[in-house]
Amino acid sequence: MKQCRQILAVMLALVLCIGAIPALADTMYVQTDDGADLTIRDEVTNAAIGQIPCGTAVTPDIEKSTDQWAYVTYEGTSGFVLWRYLSRKAPDAAPQPAPEPQPEPAPADPVTPPEQPAEEDGFRISVIGAAVSLTGEGAGEAAVTVGSADAAYITAQAPEVDYWVINGVRYNFGESVTELRVEKADRDWTIEAVAAGAQPQTLLSAEAIQAARTGETLTVKGVRAELSHVDANDNPSSSWYPSFNFHKDYQNHATRYRENGGQISVRVRAVVPWGSYVEGWKFDETEFYPNAIIRQFTVRSLNTSMTYEPIFGTDPNPELPKVHVTCYNCAFNGGGYSGSVDAWVEVGTNIYAAGTLSDKYGNWYVNGVPVSEGTSLERTITTNTHIEFYPIIN
User: Is the pLDDT of residue 275 over 80?
Assistant: First the structure.
């Protein structure tokens, strides 16, 4: 009798699981909250491997899908997408207005081309606050002009830098960043290093950002990098994107709350090829070189379109192949590291990760798979691929 009850319980669980997955349809359509592209994720590494435009028709493979993830193929790329962004309803086609008749153009009078402004020597790099000093060719007390062949060297004098404010936007690089070298500027930059406990002078307020909000399309994009929404503690969500449009209101995938458009906070991380390391970062075309290897950082309340791209250097003496291990709200030991949260370790290394949540309920995940329920994580794992530990609070 006990064995029969166990069999019935297993059959019931299978029915419930099958019921959680939509039946196979001839066609389903990508329907994202804000019209952004839908990310395709690799089934082994959980890395972003492609994008499906909003409104595209796809046919999920039910046998390979799970209750949360649908297995699809788009333009030769196969992987997983979230079921909640697929719909049976086809997107409504916007009616196309009939073209208005245009009058015949009159013969154009000769036009004298406008006089082109003289090229400037470069863009102005300004620093603010007693916590920083500035050096470079032609540097004054608080500013230097940077062209294509010049550089500005910014050094924080405070014993500890909490974060940096660049053109009014907060960047959390880490306490190790006390110097920035700026090269090949494509605009004017105002840079402030904020010491621990100090108040920023140039940080834009949320009210100021919303007051200046326009209908202009705003996007944040990663080149050889990917982006994730963050919560109030800078913890990223489990979804990573190559780009995101934030000029309209959108859903924050880390908090599940709606956010006001016109600004966005994201974690940016480099997709580092083996044998390379991150020398610096390009913000659009301006190059920033910190005095540390920054594989990822958090930008808060970005209020303008921006493309982030890591600048890679080549490791002259690569050893064994390595994989990237990241631990959010936890730390790991192994591979020569102790209490680390972000490191490259050799393939085949056994690492031990541990962490505790302050919340009563939650789940710990490894590469998108739940591995521990409750507040505590204790997990030993062999590094055969990139590994990401993170919690999700219920």
Answer: no
**Read out DSSP for 356-376?**
E-SSSSEEEEETTEEEEESSE
Summarize pLDDT for 85-128 with one digit per residue, the tens. 888 877 765 555 555 555 555 444 444 444 444 345 678 888 77
DSSP string, 53-78: -TT-EE---GGG--SSEEEEEETTEE
249 vs 283: CA distance, rounded Å: 24
Expressed as residue numbers, the domain containing 161 is 123-195
Distance (Å, whole) CA 87 – CA 27: 9
Within a domain: residue 62? yes
CATH of the domain at 50: 2.30.30.40
Task: Answer yes or no: are the C-beta atoms of 240 and 276 closer than 8 Å.
Answer: no
User: Do 247 and 260 contact (CB within 8 A), yes or no?
Assistant: no
Per the structure, the count of domains in the chain is 4
Q: What is the pLDDT of residue 299?
A: 97
Tell me the residue type at 233: N
- What is the arithmetic mean of pLDDT over 198-205? 90
* Domain identity same for 54 and 80: yes
